[in-house]
C-alpha cells in the first residue's frame, strides 16, 4: 500500500513538473489599458506587461494586437527579471509621439537593457522622424534625435520580422551585447535623412544579421569598435551609404573589430558598397579577419573602399594619420557596376599600412569605360580574375 502511494506521489510530481515547465502565460497590452488608436499614451500598459512577464515563473508572451500604439521613451529593464523566456508577439505598430522633441532629446526611444532571453516577433516601429530631419537639414539647434530600438548589455536576443520606419536617428543599435540574432528585418527612411543608419553594432559579440532589406539616408549596417564574431548575410542595401566597418579610431584607446563576415549582399545606388573607414588620428584600434563575399553592386559610387583619412571639415585631425591597423581582409566574388571611375580604392594609413588584403574574383565595370583602382600604403594579393586590374 505504502509503495503504491509513493509511486503515485512521484507520478503526480512528475506530471506537475512537466506541465509547469511547458506552461506559458500571455499578457495582452489591450487588456492592461493600452489603446490601439495611435493617440493615447500606452507606455504604462507596456511597462506593466513587461513587469508581469519578468516576474512570471512561466515563459511569457506579451501580445500586441493590430493597431497603432503611442509610446513615449520606454526601457524594458531586465535587471531584476527572473524569467529568461519573454516573447513579444507584435501585430501592431509602435509609434513615437508626433512632437519630435519629446523623445528627441534622449538617446533611445525603445530600449532593452540587461535582458537575457527575449524574442521579438513581427511588428513595426514608426519613429516619426521626418520633422526632425527637416529641422536638422534646415538649421542647427535641433535635438540630436533618438535611436528607435536599442539592445544594450543584453544577451540571447532574437528579433524576427520586425520593420522600422523613419527613425529620428539610428534605427537599431546593438551595444555591449552577446548572441543577438536579427532576421527578416525591413528598415526604411528617406535617402536624404541624416544619420538614419539601419543597424549599428558596437562592443558586441556573436551578432547575426540575415535577410534584411535596408534603405536609409546613412549606412545600411555600421560596425563600431569592439565588434567580434559578426555574421551578416542576405542583405539588400539601398539607398544609403553601404555596409561600413567604422568610423573607427576616433579615440586613442579603442577596441578593435575582428572576425566579421559579410556575405551575399546587393547594393543598389548606394554611396559605398563594402567600406572600412577610420579617422586620421592616433589610435590603438584595429580591424582584422574580415571576409566580404558574393556582393553585387548596381551603380555604386565606391564599391570597394578603405578610407583611413577620414577627417570631416579638416577639423581635429589635420596632418595626422590613422593608427588603426587593418589586416587580413578578403574580397571574394564582388561584381557589378561602379558609378565612378575608381571602383576599388585602398587609401590606408602611412603609419600602419594595410596588410593581407586579398582580391579574388572581382569584376566591376564603369559604364563603357574601364574602371580603375587606386592604392596607397597597402599590401596584399589577388587570385583569379580581378577587374579593374589590381594595384596591390
Ligand atoms: C568567427 O565568427 C563566427 C560567427 O560569425 C563564429 O562562428 C566563428 O567561430 C568565429 N571564429 C573565431 C576564430 O572566433
Ligand atoms: C551569391 O549571391 C546571389 C545573389 O546576388 C545568390 O543568388 C547566390 O545564391 C549567392 N551565392 C552563394 C554561394 O551564396
UniProtKB/TrEMBL annotation:
The cellular location(s) given in this protein's UniProt record come to: Secreted, Cell wall
Q: Which InterPro entries match?
A: Glyco_hydro_28, PbH1, Pectin_lyas_fold, Pectin_lyase_fold/virulence
Q: Which domain of life is it from?
A: Eukaryota
Q: Which UniProt keywords apply?
A: Cell wall, Cell wall biogenesis/degradation, Glycosidase, Hydrolase, Secreted, Signal
Which SMART domains does the record cross-reference, listed alphabetically? Answer: PbH1 (SM00710)
Main localization, broad class: secreted
Output one GO MF annotation.
Answer: polygalacturonase activity
- The catalytic residues are 241
Signal peptide start and end residues: 1-23
Q: Which family does it belong to?
A: Belongs to the glycosyl hydrolase 28 family.
Protein name as it appears in the record:
Polygalacturonase
Q: Which organism is it from?
A: Aquilegia coerulea (Rocky mountain columbine)
Amino acid at each position: 500500500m505504502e509503495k503504491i502511494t509513493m509511486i503515485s506521489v512521484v507520478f503526480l510530481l512528475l506530471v506537475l513538473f512537466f506541465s509547469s515547465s511547458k506552461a506559458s502565460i500571455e499578457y495582452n497590452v489591450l487588456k492592461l489599458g493600452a489603446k490601439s488608436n495611435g493617440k493615447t499614451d500606452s507606455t504604462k500598459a507596456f511597462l506593466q506587461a513587461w513587469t508581469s512577464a519578468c516576474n512570471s515563473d512561466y515563459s511569457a508572451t506579451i501580445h500586441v494586437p493590430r493597431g497603432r500604439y503611442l509610446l513615449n521613451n520606454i526601457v524594458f529593464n531586465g535587471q531584476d527579471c527572473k524569467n529568461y523566456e519573454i516573447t513579444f508577439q507584435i501585430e501592431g505598430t509602435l509609434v513615437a509621439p508626433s512632437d519630435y522633441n519629446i523623445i528627441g532629446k534622449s538617446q533611445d526611444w525603445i530600449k532593452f537593457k540587461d535582458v537575457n532571453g527575449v524574442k521579438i516577433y513581427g511588428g513595426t516601429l514608426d519613429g516619426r522622424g521626418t520633422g526632425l530631419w527637416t529641422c536638422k537639414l534646415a538649421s542647427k539647434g535641433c535635438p540630436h534625435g533618438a535611436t528607435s530600438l536599442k539592445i544594450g548589455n543584453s544577451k540571447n536576443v532574437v528579433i524576427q520580422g520586425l520593420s522600422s520606419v523613419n527613425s529620428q536617428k539610428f534605427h537599431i543599435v546593438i551595444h555591449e551585447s552577446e548572441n543577438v540574432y536579427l532576421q527578416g528585418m525591413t528598415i526604411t527612411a528617406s535617402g536624404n535623412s541624416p544619420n538614419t543608419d539601419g543597424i549599428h553594432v558596437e562592443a558586441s559579440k556573436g551578432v547575426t544579421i540575415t535577410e534584411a532589406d535596408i534603405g536609409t539616408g546613412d549606412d545600411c549596417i555600421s560596425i563600431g569598435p569592439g565588434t567580434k564574431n559578426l555574421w551578416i548575410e542576405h542583405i539588400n542595401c539601398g539607398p544609403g551609404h553601404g555596409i561600413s566597418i567604422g568610423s573607427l579610431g576616433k579615440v586613442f584607446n579603442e577596441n578593435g573589430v575582428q572576425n566579421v563576415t559579410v556575405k551575399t549582399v546587393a547594393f543598389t545606388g548606394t554611396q559605398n558598397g563594402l567600406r572600412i573607414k577610420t579617422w586620421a588620428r592616433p589610435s590603438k584600434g584595429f580591424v582584422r579577419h574580415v571576409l566580404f563575399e558574393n556582393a553585387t553592386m548596381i551603380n555604386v559610387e565606391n564599391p570597394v573602399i578603405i578610407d583611413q583619412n577620414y577627417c570631416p571639415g579638416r577639423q581635429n585631425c589635420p596632418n595626422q594619420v590613422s593608427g588603426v591597423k587593418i589586416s587580413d581582409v578578403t574580397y571574394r566574388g564582388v561584381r557589378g557596376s561602379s558609378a565612378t571611375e575608381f571602383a576599388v580604392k585602398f587609401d590606408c594609413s602611412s603609419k600602419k599600412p594595410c596588410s593581407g588584403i586579398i582580391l579574388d574574383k572581382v569584376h566591376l565595370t564603369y559604364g563603357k569605360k574601364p574602371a580603375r583602382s587606386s592604392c596607397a600604403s597597402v599590401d596584399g594579393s589577388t587570385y583569379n580574375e580581378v577587374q579593374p586590374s589590381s594595384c596591390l
